[in-house]
Amino acid sequence: MEVKVRVATILLRKAEPPLGKNEFPFTLEDGSDVRRLISDLGLPEALVGSVTVNRKRCPLERTLEEGDAVAIVPAISGG
């Protein structure tokens, strides 16, 4: 299945290998969840602060469907 992915710019270089664009289509196995997408993208899960699917915040266990729009936002820290 194919989903539309948007990754916050700061996470692009944290992926292994680094991602070239912040918005792109991505193909993964049917029945995959958000956690699997993050892993397949090579993103360190510890750096992910929140994820939205179709503009609604969701847990990493949410199963994805064909055509879903996924946005991955980094964890924010400060002092």
What is the radius of gyration computed over CA atoms, rounded to a whole number of angstroms?
Answer: 12 Å
Structural class per helix/strand content? alpha+beta
Taking the alpha carbons of the first and last residues, their distance comes to 41 Å
Task: Please give the number of β-strands.
Answer: 5
Estimate the helix proportion, in percent. 10-25%
Topology order in helix (H) and strand (E) letters: EHEHEEE
Report the top-level CATH class. Alpha Beta
- Mean of pLDDT: 94
Q: Any idea of the CATH topology? A: Ubiquitin-like (UB roll)
Oligomer: single chain
The percent range for strand residues is 25-35%
Uncertain runs are none
**Overall 3D shape:** globular
Name of the CATH architecture: Roll
Task: Domain count, please report it.
Answer: 1
Number of helices: 2
Written account of the structure:
The chain is an alpha+beta fold and 79 residues long. The chain has one domain (2-74): Ubiquitin-like (UB roll) (Roll). Helices cover 14% and strands 33% of the residues. It contains two helices and five strands. The protein has helices at 9-12, 34-40, and strands at residues 2-7, 23-27, 48-53, 56-58, 69-74. A five-stranded mixed β-sheet has the order 2-1-5-3-4. β3 and β4 (56-58) form a beta hairpin. The chain is globular, with a radius of gyration of 12 Å. The N and C termini lie far apart (41 Å).
